[in-house]
Input
Amino acid sequence: MTNRLLKALSISHPIIQAPMAGGITTAELVIAVSEAGGLGMIGAGYLEAESTRRQIQEIKAGTNKPFGINLFVPSPYKEEKDVIHRAQLSLKPFLEKLGSLSGENAFNSYEQTLEIFLEQVKVIIEEQVPVCSFTFGMPSSDVIHFLKQAGTYTIGTATTLSEALAIEAAGMDAVVLQGSEAGGHRGHFLAGVEQSMIGLMALIPQTVDQVNIPVIAAGGIMDRRGVQAAQCLGAQAAQLGTAFLTCTESGANTLHKQAILEGQQEDKTTLTKAFSGKAARGIENDFIRNMRKVEQELPEFPIQNTLTKPIRSAAAQNNDRNMMSLWCGQNPNLAEPITAKQLVHKLVDEE
Amino acid sequence: MTNRLLKALSISHPIIQAPMAGGITTAELVIAVSEAGGLGMIGAGYLEAESTRRQIQEIKAGTNKPFGINLFVPSPYKEEKDVIHRAQLSLKPFLEKLGSLSGENAFNSYEQTLEIFLEQVKVIIEEQVPVCSFTFGMPSSDVIHFLKQAGTYTIGTATTLSEALAIEAAGMDAVVLQGSEAGGHRGHFLAGVEQSMIGLMALIPQTVDQVNIPVIAAGGIMDRRGVQAAQCLGAQAAQLGTAFLTCTESGANTLHKQAILEGQQEDKTTLTKAFSGKAARGIENDFIRNMRKVEQELPEFPIQNTLTKPIRSAAAQNNDRNMMSLWCGQNPNLAEPITAKQLVHKLVDEE
Output
C-alpha cells in the first residue's frame, strides 16, 4: 500500500503526536517527535497569536523536520448572566476548599475568540507551518484557501462519517477520525455528543470506503498493535495523545502523568462537560463526580472553561488531582514514562 | 502465531457467528456458518429447555462440525408492582396505536428464570454441545465445572479488563470482549453501563496483556479488515453479529434486515433500555425516542422485556419498524444480503 499521507507530509513513520492543548505539547516534545520521524504537533487551542508564533519559532530553531499545529475552530456562543451565575455558585465550594478567592472572571466574547483564531491563522501562514489541523468544526473556506495557497497541509477532525464527508467537501487535505476511545475533548460538530461516540473498529472502515482523502486514526492507540490495527482498517497514520502525554518531554502536570501511569483500571475514564462546557474524556475524580448533577446546565465552551480556570490552577499548585482535568484515552494501562524518541521507535519497530 | 482457540474449537477460520437471541440464529444459519469453517452459535437466551434441545438436535442433524450455544446468566430481580404499573402506563399509547389490547403480562420470577437456565445447562450437557458461551454475567462454579467435565468449551463475555480477569479466575476457557461498538445487549456485569463502553482498539490490547485465556473480539467488525485488525490487537478470533444478521439464513425480521441494509448513516444507532430494561444498541426509532424520558424509571430486565413483548409482536405484524427492536452494531454501512457461506469466505479470503 502506498502511503500518500507520509509522502505529502514528508515524514518517515505513520505516527502523529496529538496536538494536546494547555501546555502539554512543549517545543521539546514536538521537536523530539518530528526528529524521530513522526509528526510533532503544537496544541495551540488556548494560545494567543504571539505565543503561537513564539512556539513555532522555537520548534523551527530545533528541527528542520516537518511539524504541525492545531487550532480550535470557534463556534458562536453567548455570555448568559444567569447561567454563569448558577455555574459560579456550583463552583464556589471547590474554590473555597482550595483556599482560592473566587474573584472576577473575564470572558472573551465570541468575536474576540474569532479574532484570535484568525490572528493565529495569519501567524501560521507567515511562519509557513507545514501542517495545520482543526478541531471543534471546520474553518471557513477562506481560511482553508489561504492556508493551502501558503503550502500548509490542512487536516480536519471528524467523529462520524458525515463529518468526514463534510471535511472532504470543504477541500481539506486529510481527516483525523476521532474514535470514542479518545482522551480529551470530543471534536464532533455535526453529530451530537452521544452520536459521536463511535469506536474506531467501526468508524475507520465505513469512512475510508466513502472518503478519498487520507484518514488518520485517533483514539485508544498506545502501541504498535494499535498502529497496525488502524492500518488494517484503512487508516494511513495513527495519532496518539495519551501515549505521548506521559513522555519525558511532555509538559503535562506531573500529577496528570502519574494518574495515567498508575492506572490499573481500564474503566476509570469518563466523559464530562464539567471542566470546559464541552464533553471530554478524562480520569474520573471528585470534581467530575460532584459536578455530575449540574452538568447539563453549565455554560457552554469556552465560558465554563474560563470559570474553572482558577480551580484548575489552584488544584495544580496544591497537588490536588481531584480538581484537575486529567484528560486520558481508554487505554491508560499501556502508558509508559519514556522519551518521545523511544515511543516513536516502539510504535514502528518490527518484532 | 499459533491459534490455541481454533485448535481447541476444531474450527478452520477465526470467525464466530454471534449468538443473537430471539429467533435470529436459525438452525440454517448456525449450520451454514459451521459448515463454512467458522463457529455457528445458537442464541438461546430467550428459549426454554425443550426448544433449546430441539434446535441443538436440528443442528446436529445438519452438520458434523462444531457449533455453540449462548445462555443469559440470570441475575436476581424483583417484580415491583408500582414500577411495573408506571411502565405499563407509558407503554399504553404504543399498544393503542398498534390496535393491540394491553392484556395481562405474566412474569417469570427470578427463581423460575434460574430454573429454566439450569434446565438449559442440563440439555447442553446431555446433548454434548461443543461450545457454550454466557452473557450478562458468570455462571456458578458448579455450572462451569459440569460443563467442562462434559467436554463443553466454556466462554464468558466481558466488557472491561476487570470482567475478563474475573472470567479467567472463574476457570472459563475463553472470553469474548464486547466492545462499545457492539449491537444488541451490553454484557457488563461488574462495570456500570457507562464504564462498559470501551472501544475494541483500547480494550483488546490491555486485556490480552493481562489475561492468559484466548480472547475473542466482538463489536463493529464487519469484514476482513476488522478481523485482521482484531488479530493485530491480540484477539484470536472475531465474533460478528450484525454482519450475520442480514445473511440469507438469518431468522431476523425482514424489516430489521432492511433497516440495517438501507443504512447510509453511521451515527444512527443508539443505546436504549426501553425495550428490555437492559442497555442495548440498536437503530433509533420512535419507540426509543419517545421512551427516552422514562428510561431510567423502567422495570429491570427481564420484566420490561416481558412488558414490551406485545408491542414488538404487533409492530412486526403491522410492518411498523418504529416500534420494533432493531439491534445493530456501529457499522451497518458494511452489511450485505449474502449467504453465511459467502460472508465467511469474504471474511477470511486473501486479497
Remarks:
- The longest strand of chain B covers residues 67-72.
